[in-house]
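The passage that follows is intended for readers who have already worked through the single-chain material. We present the inputs for a multi-component assembly, then the predicted structure in tokenized form, and finally a short commentary. You are encouraged to pause after the input and sketch how you expect the pieces to fit together before reading on.
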Amino acid sequence: QVQLKESGPGLVQPSQTLSLTCTVSGFSLMDYSVHWVRQPPGKGLEWMGRMKYDGDTYYNSALKSRLSISRDTSKSQVFLKMNSLQTEDTAIYYCTRVEDYSGDYFDYWGQGVMVTVSS
Amino acid sequence: DIQMTQSPASLSASLGETVTIECRASEDIYNGLAWYQQKPGKSPQLLIYNANSLHTGVPSRFSGSGSGTQYSLKINSLQSEDVASYFCQQYYDYPYTFGAGTKLELK
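Having made your guess, compare it with the prediction:
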């Protein structure tokens, strides 16, 4: 069955770089796109960016200067890197799957990984 | 960026009642709208896509409607397991944006 699972450090120091991995199963990264969405504690959802099935990337302009998304299709993994972290980047980070053909809605979500930015 | 204004922010309803949540986009999003349900401590789950299509496995008491800039999610015959937060999301244009959410509680 379709699964996505985020992994990464739970605590990052201010000004440091966040590195997260989304490991997927049950589908191919060459057939579906993966997007990253984050949610500060008790708040709403923010779309961050996406890795399209063809390898193309697109980022939220609010984060573009700090964000990078890449992948390793052989390992079924998508990577998120974001630098210059601040306390306002404290959030649950989700990777999600998009079918692409009928619309860019998120039909499957990972469980999320909580990232706290603190010294 | 397209702004999504969701209302109400919170809602209290009784079992068996029908509830409606609204979402207004700052411009026409041509039915590029999804609704998600999020229970405490869990990731969001897709309910409705393309404004009115029910995702696989979602109970038929959930329905979506609307067009242009105005969309709504209706829950018929509210069940206890529907207590959750609900978010709308537009995917018509980048950056994709979400409504602020509606917290649904039982009266």
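Commentary: The first strand of chain B starts at residue 4 and ends at 7. The interface with chain A takes residues 32, 34, 36, 43-46, 49-50, 55, 87, 89, 91, 94-101 of chain B (CB under 8 Å). How closely did your sketch match?
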